[in-house]
Amino acid sequence: ILKTTSSEYWGYVVAGANAYGKDHPNVTVEVKGATSETAYDEQMNMIETDMQNADIDGYVIAPLQADMVANMISGQTKPIVAVDTTVDAPEVLSFVGTDNEAAGKLGGAAAARLAKERGWEEIKCIEIAGVQGDSTNEARMRGYKAGVESEGGMFLSDEIQYANAVADQAVNCMEAIMQNHPEGVAIICANNDDMAMAAARTAAGNKAYENTVFLGFDGIQSACNAILAGEETMSVAQEAYDMGYKAVEAAVKAVNGETLDKFIDSGCDVINKDNAQKRLDTLKGYIG
Q1: Whole-number pLDDT of residue 145
Q2: Nearest 5°: phi and psi at 252?
Q3: Can you point out the beta strands (E) in 102-209?
């Protein structure tokens, strides 16, 4: 049960989960998700229904609201694995995903170094964030801040713009940033690539922002294309396909009585113009 199945990033998680099922014909993998990352009730209804389904042996959940999910799974004795976003509950045997804070720090530091190379004297960073209160969003934000500050930059925490993880709201956020900072900002970081690309498109043609570093998160195909085209500047890439595959693999191991590691790291990398084509070719192999 994923946060959503309606974005490219989650498409890779779906592909990885389904690939495990294809590789293991004795395992039936059913994948579902909410229509958007703010469709909380929809996901809760999915979880509630499936928790009562006697035919299901184990669960993989990417929670939209981790606290609510923790309450809903309380007392469940069948194996549960969290994917992408962890759930603080004893019923969850393992978390499969990215160390979001470490990944954010990697990206923030790389963005600050590039901003210096582009001639920025003041390395200020403003984030266009996802859903306020989401634990994954908060972890990436802490990472971005740490990474930017490790290179002597300033992360403007009091100017964070929340765009609910969608591109159209990121456009409004970027317009507000440009109005508040007509002089330009060295780094605009975003909680995902869709928002980073939307921000970059919105700022296109504004001379004060022509050397701004637009940093996204996920490393999806559209981001690779945008990086190659000189629009989005860089992205912290998650290995979403591996995340989906490893999460199902972990759940099956737990069903078979194996003990799981509490955290299974699916890895990350920083994608820029030098390695975007290679990344793009890899992703096309997953879902075309």
Answers
A1: 98
A2: -65, -40
A3: 124-129, 154-155, 161-162, 187-190
